[in-house]
């Protein structure tokens, strides 16, 4: 049985990844802070699909707890075939209005955790000559809109760079760049989902994961699921930077409180 480790598995996109992968026959290691939700997921997936699900509670913003997850990823006795770096959250305040502690914690979860877990995974995978890393970034990574989009830009460029570095080694690396997805993300960030985007802009988390895994099979390095977001991505790639950072275009991605 191949094994996948999914961060942020207790809700939203990470939960959808875990469910789809269990259905595909993967054993799982599920990571998030909320142990109770992970244990419920473990029971549900083991009962439904007969796979092994290991619960690994951790706050990825905490260096010691992150290291425990990295040690699990690197464990040669229990190899991880697929790493999904998915855990993340949006900030409730603008950079100027926020504390530096909250900004640093955000950076630790969105960037440092992806860096550390990818490093642990890629070395083990390269030694075995196989493995896949999916880093969940965002369409916001193509915009210039607050520290969230800056952090996600790092995730996209880092993933592209690592994909080049591992080309031909049997290790695949992908940045998944979703647009608006119906999850707990907006509620947690204090964003009114009904006002954030019109209905046609919203993606379903299960469909997003199916599209992402199909793109993995195709060898896509930057996956942008949804026709509407593929058009936006193409336009943004060719747009002058003055448009990319225009507040009227990017304001919907910004935190709603200053
Ligand atoms: N929803 C969207 O519109 C959207 C669009 C583009 C990209 N994304 C990205 O997609 C990823 C998943 O977000 P989602 O939409 O599924 O949001 P979600 O429903 O709020 O789920 C976020 C997950 O991350 C976990 N998490 C948050 N902080 C953590 C920490 N410090 N340590 C460990 N786990 C932590 C949460 O679990 P616990 O609370 O139990 O720790 C939860 O499982 C994020 O990286 C997000 O930036 C989302």
UniProtKB/TrEMBL annotation:
The keyword Oxidoreductase applies. Residues 2-184 form the Ketoreductase domain. One of its GO terms (molecular function) is oxidoreductase activity. Gene3D superfamilies: NAD(P)-binding Rossmann-like Domain. Pfam families: adh_short. GO terms for cellular component: membrane. Keywords: Oxidoreductase. PANTHER family: DEHYDROGENASE/REDUCTASE SDR FAMILY MEMBER 7B (PTHR44196), SHORT-CHAIN DEHYDROGENASE-RELATED (PTHR44196:SF2). Belongs to the short-chain dehydrogenases/reductases (SDR) family. This is SDR family oxidoreductase.
């Amino acid at each position: 049985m191949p094994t996948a480790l999914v961060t942020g598995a207790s809700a939203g996109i990470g939960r959808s990844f875990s469910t789809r992968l269990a259905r595909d026959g993967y054993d799982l290691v599920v990571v998030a802070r909320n142990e109770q939700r992970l244990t419920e997921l473990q029971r549900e997936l083991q009962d439904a699909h007969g796979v092994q699900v290991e619960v690994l509670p951790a706050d990825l913003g905490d260096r010691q707890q992150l290291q425990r997850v990295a040690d699990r990823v690197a464990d040669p006795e229990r190899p991880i075939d697929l790493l999904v770096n998915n855990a993340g959250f949006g900030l409730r305040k603008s950079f100027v209005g926020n504390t530096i502690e909250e900004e640093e914690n955000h950076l630790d979860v969105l960037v440092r955790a992806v860096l550390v877990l990818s490093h642990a995974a890629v070395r083990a995978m390269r030694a075995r000559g196989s493995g896949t890393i999916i880093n969940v970034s965002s369409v916001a990574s193509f915009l210039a809109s607050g520290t969230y989009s800056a952090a996600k830009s790092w995730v996209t460029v880092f993933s592209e760079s690592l994909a080049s570095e591992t080309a031909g080694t049997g290790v695949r690396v992908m940045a998944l760049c979703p647009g608006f997805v119906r999850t707990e993300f907006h509620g947690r960030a204090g964003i009114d989902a009904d006002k954030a985007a019109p209905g046609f802009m919203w993606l379903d988390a299960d469909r997003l994961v199916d599209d992402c895994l199909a793109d993995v099979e195709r060898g896509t390095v930057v996956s942008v699921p949804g026709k509407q977001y593929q058009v936006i991505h193409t336009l943004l790639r060719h747009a002058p930077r003055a448009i990319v950072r225009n507040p009227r275009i990017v304001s919907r991605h910004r935190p709603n409180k200053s």
